[in-house]
């Protein structure tokens, strides 16, 4: 092959590579449509959880009906503890998977985590040396949720508001550990009382998402849940027969669409 033939071949090959590297309008449109049609998304959230207040908990304690929340019982027993219900409010975090059934409807599944430890003492009783009789009250919740969400403006809007609801399966554990007073003789002893289980209840969500490019969204979400656990006082020896697992959270969210 002559030198001129080599040059011609090289020029043709270079031209072919250049044309291949430049996307045509049709191919660019295909890529854009593929991104906008992404139906799956994985999200992460971080926020703050407020437990149900005292007035919203089962509080028919020490009566014939005996429908009583454990925390309320601790505050209203013969020897009450000194703490506040909202001492259990704390940070929560989690993740979720969403699938867009259409531009206006999504279904999803989520998992979050909540754990709070509240120090307490007896309100009216102290040790013989004047020191406090102290305990740690611990509540842990791991809600697994299934939700459906409606997006009134669709998934292509500059701002994506949504509202929805579903069901939550809340795995929980509650414990009291430390020093306690025997009401029969006033003696002080150390012990740990605990109960756990899984409770089921409704979940409501609502929020705003802001697209950050084709593949990401950031936003803020409000979530409300309601459920009650059975503490089985005959076994756990806790004062109340229920533990309210309800509350609400405000979360910052981040999602990746694919």
The residue ranges in which pLDDT falls below 50 over 5 or more consecutive positions are 1-35
Q: Give the CA-based shape.
A: elongated
| Main β-sheet description | 8 strands, antiparallel, barrel
What is the string of SSEs from the N terminus onward?
A: HHEEEHEEEEEEEEHEE
In short:
With 258 residues, the chain is α+β, with helices and mostly antiparallel strands. Helices cover 16% and strands 56% of the residues.
Please, could you describe this protein's structure?
The protein is built from four helices and 13 strands. The relative contact order is 0.18. It is α+β, with helices and mostly antiparallel strands and 258 residues long. A hairpin with a 5-residue loop joins strand 6 and strand 7. It has two domains: 37 residues; 219 residues, Porin, CATH 2.40.160. 16% of the residues lie in helices and 56% in strands.
Summarize this structure as a short list of keywords or feature phrases.
258 residues; alpha+beta; 2 domains; eight-stranded antiparallel β-barrel; two-stranded antiparallel ribbon; elongated; disordered N terminus
Topology (elements, then pairings):
Blueprint: H1 3-21, H2 25-36, E1 40-51, E2 59-60, E3 67-68, H3 70-76, E4 81-82, E5 90-102, E6 105-126, E7 132-150, E8 160-181, E9 188-211, E10 216-225, E11 228-230, H4 233-236, E12 242-244, E13 247-257
Antiparallel strand pairs: 1-5, 1-13, 2-3, 4-6, 5-6, 6-7, 7-8, 8-9, 9-10, 10-13, 11-12
